[in-house]
Amino acid sequence: MGGTALERKVHLVPWKTIIREKAHGGLGIHSMRQLNSAYLMKLGWRLQTEPTTLWAHLLKEKYCRGRDWEHVTRSTTSVSNAWRGIRESISLTNKGMGLTVGDGRLTEFWNHV
Q1: Which residues, other chains included, contact 77 with Cβ-Cβ below 8 Å and sequence gap of 6+?
Q2: Cβ–Cβ contacts within 10 Å for residue 43, how many?
Q3: Which are the contacts of 20, defined by CB distance < 8 A and separation ≥ 6?
Q4: What is the rounded radius of gyration, in angstroms, for the C-alpha atoms of the chain?
Q5: CB burial string 66-105: b at 16+ within 10 A, e below
Q6: Which of 2, 31, 39, 44 lies deepest, with the highest CB count within 10 Å?
């Protein structure tokens, strides 16, 4: 596998070493699957927390077609891979969502469960 000063060869590295942090002896390259999941979760979070933005309106108009968000997230079909990814990651996204009270002036105790 290894090469010499005159001969160059490919050096294979295990995947676990590739994605391990540099400080721990790895190459520090992120797992694309995990990175993609994180981005899809962020989009799902933004759709729920920023429902009045233009891009949220466009996505909802295209994929929800008048149905409520809950129904669409449970649907089994999807036109877009991105929408399918957001839909599949929404339950995990919701697990991580919370409410920050701050000074309490905008918090409705009985309605924010």
Answers
A1: none
A2: 20
A3: 26, 27, 28
A4: 22
A5: eeeeeebbeeeeeeeeebbbbbebbeebeeeeeeeeeeee
A6: 44
Q: What's the residue count for the chain?
A: 113
Six-digit token string for 74: 């449970």
CA–CA gap between residue 69 and residue 93 (Å, rounded): 14
The percent helix, strand, coil of the chain (3-state, each to 5) is: 50, 0, 50
Model pLDDT for residues 3-59, shown as the tens digit of each residue: 677 888 887 888 888 889 999 998 889 888 888 989 998 988 888 888 899 988 888
Amino acid at position 34, single letter: Q
Phi, psi dihedrals of residue 30, rounded to the nearest 5°: -75, 150
- 37, 91 in Cβ contact below 8 A? no
Which two tokens mark 27? Answer: 């190459």
The tokens for 2 are 């290894």
